[in-house]
Hints:
The complex is a heterodimer of chains A (60) and B (133).
Chain A: H1 3-6, H2 10-22, E1 24-25, E2 34-35, E3 43-44, E4 51-57
Antiparallel strand pairs in A: 1-2
Chain B: E1 9-15, H1 24-35, H2 40-50, H3 56-65, H4 70-79, H5 83-95, E2 103-106, E3 109-112, H6 117-130
Antiparallel strand pairs in B: 2-3
Helix pairs in contact in B: 1-2, 1-3, 1-5, 3-4
Amino acid sequence: MNSGSLRSPWCVRVYTIVAASILACTFNATAAPVRIAFEPMMIKGPMNAPVTLVEFSDYQ
Amino acid sequence: MLDEYDGRVRLVFRDFPLPSHDLAVAAHEAARCAGAQQRYWPYHDRLFGEQPRFQRDDLIRYARDLGLDREGFTRCLDSHAEQAAVLASREEGRALGVTSTPTFMVNGSTLVGAQPVEAFRQAINEALRKAPR
């Protein structure tokens, strides 16, 4: 197995870029919207869920 | 909580390795390497269960335990192929005002630090009330 086959397929990466362009999360009511990247492998739950819970965490 | 809300909530995990944690970036890279083999969440859960044992050999052992292709995983880890994505995630967090972990955002409302389950329920319920139907 070469290293290329272990990476996300190109279609997923393109999808990620497209999704990132349409998903925005506002830090608070007055701040300008800040985009959050949208990486399918790091998401649990349905794509059309009305609520998105974003977790920024550190494993260590 | 995702089960409790039955399809109305999705969780988006973002990397935010703290600079003071010298093994954290590698751990986040390792999780993404596991994700390249469709095992992101099992590896993610294993890392939280093994804190702070994140030396290279530990990370490879967790991959092996989860049945990942060891050679491919090790190549990914050693090449730091996922490092740029991890660091970009941290920068994204900083741009949003994140300074500590964990930090949560529920449709834009921020919760900082370990919070009781009830705090999440309150934030999610509020977000559901405001969400377009």
